[in-house]
Amino acid sequence: MTMSAARRRLELALVPVKLPMAARIGESMSRRGTDVTAASAGRSCVVLAPHPDDETLGCGATVMRKIDGGAGVQVIVISDGATWPPWRTPEENIAVRDAELRASCRILGLADEAVTHLSFPETRLDSAGDSLVDAVADAVRSHTPDEVYVTSEADPHSDHAALARATKRALTGRAVRLLAYPVWQWERPRSWARTVAAASPAETVSTAGYLERKRQAVEVFSSQMSSALGGEKIQGLTPGFLGHFLAEREMFFPVAL
Question: Is the pTM higher than 0.90?
């Protein structure tokens, strides 16, 4: 057995332990986070998402609160979504996921012109270099938000971490708040530790009054749900994983610039 195969078997064996552990850690931090619901509602923002659906999972209720509070919101999704699900052609995936993104954002209350979908290749953001940094810098310069939301450098997904690094580079020295929202940390206990080490203690925004609309917006991403093909289980968004984003609060970690 190769080392990579052995490591894969070990990781699979640890899943039943890692998932509940990661959930307990995240839920504990969320409960102990500082509630900034009222203050957040009045601050304009740009939400940066590595893939179509991350913006809704991580920030859906916060986006709705800001819109209702009269604050400007722009959503910018970076990658084209070409690689998932694997049984469709890249062209089909790009079209389907863009349609899902826009339908979901309409449910959140965003006008079409407030949603920008860029075309960086999915799964390759870690090699995008200065072009990704420049795209983020241009977006923030164009909209001058009070806050920028992005995934964390500690997220185990390489696209998520790459976008976080590029965003920090793009915003260093700017008068804007940078906040990281967790996604795949909910499955990786060690990623929570790295998330905390890279940021200030958690802030939270209540989902009260917005949870059902957020649920509807999440359900639009049907192409990303866990499924089966030819008897084989295909990875995707599972009900258990989605439950972390359909809870009482959304959680964010302020990142120093």
Answer: yes
